[in-house]
Design goal:
It is a single chain. The chain has 2 domains: about 160 residues, Phosphoglycerate kinase, N-terminal domain (Rossmann fold), CATH 3.40.50.1260; about 200 residues, Rossmann fold (3-Layer(aba) Sandwich), CATH 3.40.50. The chain is globular. α8 runs parallel beside α10. The two termini are about 15 Å apart. The chain is built from 15 helices and 15 strands. Bound molecules: adenosine-5'-diphosphate (ADP) and magnesium ion (MG). The site of magnesium ion has 3 residues, from α13.
Amino acid sequence: MNYNKKTVKDIDVAGKKVLLRCDFNVPQDKATGAITDDKRIRAALPTIQYLLDQGAAVIACSHLGKPNATFDSFVKKQAEKGKDPAALTEEDWKKSLKKLSLAPVAQRLSELLGKPVIMAADVVGPDATAKAAALQPGQIMLLENTRFEKGETKNDPELAKKMASMADVYVSDAFGAVHRAHASTAGVADYLPAVSGFLIQKELEIIGGALADPKRPLVAILGGSKVSSKIGVINNLLNIADTIIIGGGMTYTFIKAMGGSVGKSLLEADWLDYCKEMIQKAKDKGVKLLLPEDSVCAKEFSADAQPVTVDSMNIPDDMMGMDIGPKAIAAYADAVKDAGTVIWNGPMGVFEFPAFAAGTKAVAEALSHCGAITIIGGGDSAAAVQQLGYADKMTHISTGGGASLEFMEGKELPGVACLLDK
Ligand code: ADP
Ligand code: MG
């Protein structure tokens, strides 16, 4: 995939209407609907501010959560949850939609920008089209949740065309959604000149750069819970990296594949052969594959379980691996010492429990002073680095969980592929 895409700086946006796809999929308090973390709104500000300063009229859009775009799909979903379909009314459905309105985002965005944000009552309906037509340079409006339209997730060309007809240019800055081919993330680019905003530009430059032409040695650190969710990442990085470090829950499927005993550790028996294949592939390619020599184990999966350090190949039957041990920490810190680039996806242990966070913390610490380009991908990894206080010590923390994984898998990202090449 070509990562060298035109950005907002490569086109003239003055006096133009710009349809800007953002990632405003913010976490909300279940009871009150209040936004609990506005990081994603803040992340969009540089591109928005630039467009407004250039004299563009900005028509922002985003999805939020997973609304049911039709009454039928609402009834079906509720029935799956055990509700009586006959008792459900259109009112119930509309109430469920209201909870996923972008109106609170418009309000927060307005506070952050220090100017009004005009909220549309629909996506491509009469209110949105009238407000878009009247929008002046330097003004910003926000369309309603794009997933209120049933054509959004189906990438319906009719919806894409309607969205595009409100604007002159399409700017995508929703890195968190580029792995989805939806009407607002990819479809609209069929009808408008399409470029990236600053968020996507940075992701492409840094992650794309590390995958296409890394400063070597390239060390990939892979952890998290399951091998099965990281197959593509392991496979692709084995083609690129000089060293691969394994930690987290996926460790134990590898250990088992090597003939070790893993006790009650997370084990995906269906993936044993795959792990064997990957061990062989690493050998064939001359990639150093490091597994933790020791593990911090516990008898149960709980925050107050008693941590015990054991040899990873010999975990007692009544124990499970919860974190990498001190020998592994020393070996992994040594492995990244002279790295040119480190790509890290997946925590080394159950970092949510303080007793099992040492491995993840030690790896973050090692990265913070290794002098390499350090890239963090994956939702939980980003959260771990933030929570442990190392966020500002890394070169780049990807803003897209699923998107960054697919990026590292070497997959084509529809929301990037649709942008104009430089
Ligand atoms: P990311 O979102 O960064 O891609 P994952 O979703 O793959 O990461 O994995 C994160 C989760 O893996 C964390 O919630 C963490 O508790 C869990 N995890 C890490 N190590 C283990 C382990 N040894 N056993 C079970 N779960 C683990
Ligand atoms: Mg995750």
